[in-house]
Amino acid sequence: MRTDPMGDTPARDSSDLIVEDVDILFEIGTLRHIHRSWRQFGGLPFANVAEHSFRMAFIGMVIAVHEGANVDRVVQLALAHDLPESRTGDANYVQKMYRHDDVEAAAREMDGRSALATHFDALRTELMAGITIEAKIVKDADNLDCDFELKEMRDKGANIAEALAPTREAVKRTLHTDTARRLFDTVNMRSSHAWHLNARNRFNAGDWKQEEK
């Protein structure tokens, strides 16, 4: 594999073609159109791969701050973690019993000769090894985004969260950080509507507010 020991972006000479960069950026954009596979369970409108990666990067940032980890590295790892799904798609825990994707080949061929190829390769190597605190945090964030989404579905009236409760408890036992475990418990106790109900709004601070008599 290519290496990127310092995490710096290597300089490229003038012979490199910018078209390689344009192609991978177009391909990354298509992650917006790839459904995550557990949409099959209940047919609910779960986030696509790009949306999932977006929020999990922020979940990772929160965990990193609490755990004293490198926030910038966590964000990079989070944004890169599902890029090969552009070519392999996403598989749920049933489908993975029957298929074995060549993720390494998908990632290598997707990277091509783009400016980020060496950097992406180093990020994937770190994620696969799962040794650094940053890699462990990203794994936790990847799992926790599912619980955020399940809670949102529950608050919409969908009961899939109850059906999947045993699998989510099993996932909780795999979480690496204390912060992730605290988030897991809080997500399941907290309403997904609390943020806007408690924000300054027309009901509690505006023209809908009723004056005390």
Provide the fold topology.
Elements: H1 18-29, H2 49-67, H3 71-80, H4 85-88, H5 103-111, H6 117-129, H7 133-155, H8 160-163, H9 165-172, H10 178-189, H11 194-198, H12 202-205
Would you kindly provide a written description of the structure presented here, covering whatever features stand out?
With 213 residues, the protein is mainly alpha-helical. It has a single domain, classed as Hypothetical protein af1432, CATH 1.10.3210. It starts with 17 loop residues before the first helix and ends in an 8-residue tail after the last helix.
State the share of residues found in helices, binned by percent.
55-70%
- Determine Rg (CA atoms, Å): 20 Å
CATH topology: Hypothetical protein af1432
The assembly state of the depicted protein chains is single chain
Please identify, by name, the CATH architecture: Orthogonal Bundle
Continuous helix count:
12
Series of H and E elements: HHHHHHHHHHHH
From the helix content, strand content and strand pairing, which structural class follows? mainly alpha
Which residues form runs of ≥5 with pLDDT under 50?
1-6
Q: Going by CATH, what is the homologous superfamily?
A: Hypothetical protein af1432
* Beginning-to-end CA distance, first to last residue: 72 Å
Count of strand segments: 0
Sheet bearing the most strands, described? none
User: Could you say how many structural domains there are in total?
Assistant: 1
**Mean pLDDT metric:** 90
CATH class assignment: Mainly Alpha
Q: What percent strand?
A: under 5%
- Note the overall shape: globular
